[in-house]
Design goal:
The chain is an all-alpha fold. It has a domain of 32 residues. The protein is 52% helix and 0% strand. The protein has four helices and no strands. The longest helix has 19 residues. The model has no long low-confidence stretch (mean pLDDT 82).
Amino acid sequence: MLEVKFINIEQIVVENFRALAFEQQREVLDFVEFLHEKKNKKKPLKSSLGICSDLNVSISAEEIDEARREMWQNFPREEFFIEDAK
C-alpha cells in the first residue's frame, strides 16, 4: 500500500535549510529578511507639487486668480437672510 505524506512548505524549507552549509544558511536568512522588508516597506507619498514637478509648468498667482474669476463668474449670487428665532 502507498503511504501518502503531507508536508507543508515550512517543513520543506526547514529540511532543505538544515542541509546547507553555514554560509549558505546565512544567505537564505539575508534573503528572507530582504523579502520581509520589501513586503512591509511603504512607498512615500508625493506632495501635489512633487507629482507635477517633472512637467515644468509654471503658473503665476495672477493666472490662478483669473481662472478663479472665470470659473465663478456665472455662479448664482443670492443673498440669504436668517431671522433670529426667539
